[in-house]
Amino acid sequence: MRKKQSTNYLNEQFLFQVCERNSAISMVSGRWKSQIVYYISQGNDRFHLLQQRLPGISEMVLARQLKELESHAILIKREIPNTVPTGIKYILTNKGLDLVPILDSLCNWGKLYADGKEISVSEDK
């Protein structure tokens, strides 16, 4: 937890007040969050399925990322009835579903302009 008087905290709060874009980016920033949202949207809605799709992620990191996405109301946890032990699945909220095409667009943008790709400059702008 950050100190509320730290420069980083104060700068973050300022940026969130200036533009909602900064707050939105903060909600989905992190190495795994966009992939987690994508895989849940594709039906990989259980913890073990997400681990299979993201072989480089530790259990602790996956749990933390899921908890953060849940705290931002991007997904919710639901118990799966009649399972022993109790099964949990993750469901994207409307907010999370609205995020999927944005992440798809960002992925396409990254395919065009990822680090190392040649970028032309338009003189018209």
Automatic annotation (TrEMBL):
Keywords: DNA-binding, Transcription, Transcription regulation. Residues 19-118 form the HTH hxlR-type domain. It comes from the Bacteria. InterPro entries: HTH_HxlR (IPR002577), WH-like_DNA-bd_sf (IPR036388), WH_DNA-bd_sf (IPR036390). The keyword Transcription regulation applies. One of its GO terms (molecular function) is DNA binding. The keyword Cell membrane does not apply. It holds the Pfam family HxlR. PANTHER family: TRANSCRIPTIONAL REGULATOR, TRANSCRIPTIONAL REGULATOR, MARR FAMILY. This is Helix-turn-helix transcriptional regulator. It comes from Spirosoma aureum.
